Amino acid sequence: MNIRLISGEFGGRTLDAPPGRRMHPMGERIRNALFNSIGSEVHGARVLDVFAGTGSVGLEALSRGAEHVTLVERDKLLQKILAGNIERLGVEDRTKLICTSVNNWLTTGHPEQFDIILADPPYHDPQFSTVTKLFELLKPGALMVLSHPGKGEVPTKTGVVVVDNRSYGNADLAFYRREDT
Q: pTM for the complete prediction?
């Protein structure tokens, strides 16, 4: 299975992905709509892609002008595929791959703050308690986009507001913005 990057520096290039139903990569139509809506913020941004999978979301951000992308993935097979995708695009100097769970990285690491956070947790285990911790990594005024199955409420936290919700069939995107402090 291959996933195509849509636009920018690597537009049209493909990424490797595992066969079968090991993951639910964000569909091309949803990724395109996402980046069309946040496009102006991506250029020059420091981006965090958590639950990164193949890296299609984070690498799309890099293709569209992000300065640097940090990708966090815990699955060993996906880590190997993601590392190969990074190498094939030749972007090792503009990416950082963190090979652990998001919760473990947040607990043990010393994460920086980011301009954009892209979170696409597994739909069968959305890990909203971990997602809530990500709000701390947003710079003032920064944006976070959460992909979720659209059932029930999304996590919230004081100082971070939901500024938009969009539905794309079986996927919903919640757009958060950290208030300036």
A: 0.95
